Fold these 2 entries.
Entry 1:
Amino acid sequence: MSNPFIVKNINLFCSYIYNFPTNQDCTFCRFHLNESSLSNQEKCVDSTVVTGFCGHSFHNDCMKLWIKQSNFCPLCSEKWEYLPINYEKTILDESTQSYDDKIKEIKLELKKLEIHVNK
């Protein structure tokens, strides 16, 4: 019979990777979205990533500077609206539709609501 052993010390390392369906780099700082933005790297701070209803993603701190100047996505020029956290996962889990088809469907629904509100 073997002797049991006790782990007295263990070092663990955790990592994560974002998987974006459209752009992989931040348009503003040109860094990969899995890396911190240039300004956050200088501060030794991790960056968060934001995604719009158009499907494009950027570092949050980079996008905040852009939003002060323009309310449109810098890649496709659609009106910028933040996609809520976990929204993409929710809409894709509920349906077998492709990501692009679901985004188009959501945009149509938003336009209908916008027309209804403006009447």
Entry 2:
Amino acid sequence: MEQNPNFVREDTCPACGHHLDSATEPLQPLERPGWGSISICINCKTVLRFNPAMKLQLADEHELDAEQLAHIRKIRTALTINEKIHGPPPSVRARRRRGMDR
């Protein structure tokens, strides 16, 4: 099985507890996230940031610039529209069936 090119490390969303195994830097989707990069939880759409140990932590949206905030709004809108059309992503559906997400 081919490894996800956006694999960083397995972690859980600090807001909702959803298991995450990949991440994309919203402003540079072809680049692997690094320390300080932002990401968005696919389950609860919370904005996250990688700390120096590459562990996800809650991001303070007040510290983000206008370009980052605009991009986050677009991603959240796309995730919401996609979920309304297709339902939640398979990983989210499986965890909800098992009652694993808060």
